[in-house]
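Here comes just one.
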Amino acid sequence: MFLKTPEDGIRHLRKTPGGKGVIGRAMVQELAPLNFNEALFSARAIEHPWYRCQALASIVEAKISHRDALSILDESLAAAYSQREPNRIASVSRWPLRILTGLNENIARDHALRLVSIIKAESHGLRRLDGLAAIFVAVVSVRDIRELMLTEIHITADRCHGWRTERIMNNVV
C-alpha cells in the first residue's frame, strides 16, 4: 500500500488494531482522572492486548485507592498474559506489575515468579534479557523479588554479547 501523504498514514493507522490501541490508550489516560467508569469501559473496549493492558493499568494509577484497583490490575495482567510472545508478555506487564508492587507485594511476587517462568521460555537471549529487565524495573522496590530478578538477569546477561546487552544492563544498574 502506497501512502501519498502523512494524513493517509494516520488514516491507515487508525484502522489497524495497534493504531486503534494507541488512540484508545491515550483516550483512557485522559479520561481516567476525570471519569473512572467511562475510562474503564473504554479500556476494556481496546482490542489489542498490549494497549488494553497499559490502559487498564493507567486507570489504577490515576486512582490507586479505588476499591477495584487489585481486580483491574489483575485484568490488566490477564491482557498481558493473553499475548503469544514471552518478551511482549514480560515487557508490557511492567506497567501493572509496578503499580501492584506498591499495593500488594505478595500478589506482585506471584506475578513476578510467573513472568520469570514465561520469559525463561524466550529462546532469543536479548529478548529474554530485555523481558527480565522489564520485570526487574517493576519490582525493584521489593528486596526478595529484586534479588531473584538480579540472579536471573546475570545468568542471561552472561550468555549475551554486544552493545544491546550493555545497554540493557546499564538500564538495570
